[in-house]
Amino acid sequence: MERFSIAIHGGAGTILKSSMTPEKETAYKNALKIALDAGYEVLKNGQSAIEAVERAVVELENCPLFNAGRGSVFTSEGKHEMDASIMDGRDLNAGAVTMVSGVQNPITLARLVMEKSEHVFLAGAGAVEFAKKMNCTFQDEKWFHDDFRYQQWLDIKDTDSIQLDHSVKKVQKFGTVGAVALDMTGNLAAATSTGGMTNKKFGRVGDSPIIGAGTYANNATCAVSCTGSGEFFIRGVIAYDVSCLMEFKGLSLKQASFETIYKRLPKINGDGGLIAVDSQGNIAMPFNTEGMYRAFRKSDGSEEISIYK
């Protein structure tokens, strides 16, 4: 049987065991396992890497524990604005959406942009209009409401502060979700989805929907999904940088991803992490924060579900 693998993440940041209850830790690990199982099953059945990453991310979007889809944070206006992107390593085809509201699964919409439109990136009202045309599932505000997220927003809503997901005062956690996969036919794919920052204003867009910054896939090198302080991932073009180091410097997946997260990103004061898979099915999951919700499984039976360093 041809080898295949999948990795997922649910965000990186100041995730300390000391501030996590055993029940919460179990809930996070179970949620990661559900998403991992869903994506892995797709690959095991011989389906494409694109199918697998979308399936895994849909599970994470439907779980209120993560800042994407159902668990998205509140904007300064008390609304939800979601971003997502997906990329196919076969032909560098990609789809992305930003500032969408009401769409249950932004990652599915991103895939529709890739496959059913002549565009790569749709925003705001136009993206929502396209979602309606494609018969995407919509939910009302109540479906997206989470008490913990709402309290986060209430704490800072009349200030100029913004904060990254789950933050309690200065404790930061970045709740973007993502998946990368290699399928049996040797194709790679990556997907990323997020609700952005609590109290974000002015139509702020992070790295998650930006191809090359938060998401990238190329069969010649690797597939990457990032999570962290988005502005820095955009400036460093981090997802593409991993691929670039492999393609033009001849670095391995591990060397390239470690170079970007442990050397290049800190140089510009950025923090966060990424998950990546190469054409041999190797997995890398580096992060320069206290923790990152992450998991992987390979066809050789190896598996990991982790939160802390």
Describe this structure in words.
This protein has 309 residues and is an alpha+beta fold. It has a single domain, classed as Glutamine Phosphoribosylpyrophosphate, subunit 1, domain 1 (4-Layer Sandwich). Helix content is 34%, strand content 24%. The chain contains nine helices and 13 strands. Strand 3, helix 3 and strand 4 form a beta-alpha-beta unit. About 2% of the residues have low confidence.
Keywords:
single chain, 309 residues, alpha+beta, Glutamine Phosphoribosylpyrophosphate, subunit 1, domain 1, nine-stranded mixed beta sheet, four-stranded antiparallel beta sheet, 9 helices, 34% helix, globular
In short:
With 309 residues, the chain is an alpha+beta fold. It is built from nine helices and 13 strands.
Helix-strand sequence: EHHEEHEHHHEEEEEHHHEEEE
Uncertain regions spanning at least 5 consecutive residues: 165-171
Portion in beta strands:
15-25%
How confident overall, as mean pLDDT? 92
Bulk shape: globular
The CATH class turns out to be: Alpha Beta
Radius of gyration based on Cα positions: 17 Å
CATH superfamily, called what? Answer: (Glycosyl)asparaginase
The CATH architecture is 4-Layer Sandwich
Could you say how many structural domains there are in total? 1
Characterize the largest beta sheet: strand count, sense, and whether it forms a barrel: 9 strands, mixed
